[in-house]
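Progress narrative, Year 2. Work on Transposase from Methylobacterium aquaticum advanced from sequence curation to structure prediction during this period.
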Amino acid sequence: MTFAFIEPHATTWPVRLMCRVLGVSPSGDYGWRSRPESARSASNRQLLDDVQRIHAGHQRRYGSPRVHAALRAEGRTASRGRVERLMRRHGIRALAGRRFRPCTTDSRHDLPIASDLLKQLFSVALPNQVWLADITYLPTSEGWLYLAAVLDLASRKIVGWSMRDHMRTELTSAALMMATQRQRPPAGLIRHSDRGSQYAAEAYRRQLADIHAIPSMSRAGCCYDNAPMESFFHTLKVELVHQRRWATRDEARRDLFAYIAGHHNRQRLHSALGYITPEQAERNAG
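Result:
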């Protein structure tokens, strides 16, 4: 293991210095490097190349579970533990970010409040039975950009979204309209959100009634009642928002569209789905 440490760091520190510090001889290091590459080393080198390719291809968003799932999808048989050890050894890790939960809920109103029909039971067999909805906001040099999203609980697909420079009811209504036009849900769909005025407004409730959807709302101040939606927003912040500095809202809109429509729905392997994409889950359920 000592000689294995020296080789990849030879461009950073002098070999003789590392040998002296580690208590080995330069001739021993030369002999170790001169030996023919073992089958295991060759296999690890090829696996590392594939790991680095997948990690870079997903813009450093994947940790070892998703890298391993992507390798399996390509027909590779390396174990998850081996992939994890290789990534740890070479400092390959997923993007990480701080918890960021801005307050977008204005529940201090006299509008009607719906009961919580989910009660934190987030297992649904088929798409378009339960949709979750929420709002978050993102910083740009022009000011905040507000994002309303609608998530299908069964597939974890973002089926509708809307972006505005405000968070009035128009924002949430546009996201619901997009989801309705794309998915055409059957009567009886449950649409779950927090108690925000945007979701309790008369125009929004009328929109739900028009598609024969049943409103459901979280308990006051309990983010766990909408946990899958919270999880999506957290992932969005870690994988995109914290990696960008947007000069304009239009720049942010373009990146958000690419992330939601291109990466999250079509490419990102989701742990709750057994490491397939939301669109794969939707197709499989059909």
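The beta strands are 130-140, 143-152, 158-164, 190-193, 214-217. Residues 2-34 form one domain.
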